[in-house]
Design goal:
Elements (H helix, E strand, L loop, with lengths): L3 H7 L25 H10 L4 H18 L4 H4 L15 H18 L9 H17 L17 H22 L8 H13 L3 H15 L2 H4 L6 E2 L9 H5 L4 E2 L2 H20 L3 H13 L6 E3 L6 E3 L14 H17 L3 H21 L7 H17 L5
Antiparallel strand pairs: 1-2, 3-4
Length: 386
Amino acid sequence: MASAEEILEKLDGRLNSIPSCILRVDPTSGQRSCDANGFQTLGEIGEFWNFDKRNGEWFFNYFEEYTEKCDREIVEYGPKSRATGAPLVSEKLQEDVRAKMMKLDKEIKHHDISKLTFDDLEPYLIWLTEHQHLRWNHMINRWGLVPATKDLKSANKLILCEKIGKEIERFLEKPYAYEINFHTVMSGAWDAVQAGFPDLTLKVLEPLYRFYTSGDMKIMEGAYIEHPLINVLRNSKDRAGGAGLIDPGYWARYKMSTTICLAKAYKMVGKIEKVKDLYSELIGAHLRQEVTLGEGNEKRVLSPFFGDRDKPRINYWVGKNRILETAIEFYNLETNTKIKNDLKDLIFMLFKENRTTGRCNESTDSTREPLLVVYMLLKHVYGYLK
């Protein structure tokens, strides 16, 4: 196992000069924010969660242009903080953005998604910009855009990836009384990806992924379970009525979060077929029937993996949008023309289904992410944006 000093030696010194990425900083606060050059540098050092990457991409390339098309009340909103003079988040205006998005969703679902024009979808881009105005202190990255600096504190945190990975390996060989905090594991795994250490991400997430796909785990969906490895769910005791019992609805969510980060690490080390395998499995967690991509020896079959009461395992608003994010990432990676065309059809189907059966009940991430999905569609799938 690498030492902290060895990790420190490899950490990129440019990290020290890049502040946390707060999208807008009120000049009276004295804070600094990552600029376009810093954002580009971070992309050179490591990788981003795709939503974070597109969020920053939009902000640094289109935000000013689309501000001219925004509701002026949102652009100039208040009230101001007495301490700093900075604007505070307006829940009402955020709700207005969510309501506008949901209203257009209801209209969009009646159309042939493949034939939508840029003008049909552009309102989503305006609302994405409005949402960035309202979430003035919304960090691009959910774990902190500057995950590490060139110091021993960061090096010691990154080392934990390998340490925890070895502990999970031991558990898989012979279960013992052991608990880890899933969110701590994922924070460290993303830190390693973003700091340019995908090998450390693989050391912790490969065994964790094997745990999720073990024979025992496959039969656990649909009932509260007792398991010594991971017991970190919010209100799990209240939900289950007893200590140590884990809400089954979260296993699919946790596996999805693990899979997205694991795929990013595989991409960084050039294992593209493994990335496609993970994306195929993840998309299948939302499907209600088998889907075949491509033909002949190169075809891929996406198989549904049902949970309780024959429902897809990923069947909630945020999860379904992250399935769309995954499908678009898959589309961008694919080189086989037939598979790529089939993926495009699948993306259009998923987009329409989400707008038909889904409902956004929250005005922060649950609103931001579907707006980013439309930006990704316009840029990568329709090709309307360069």
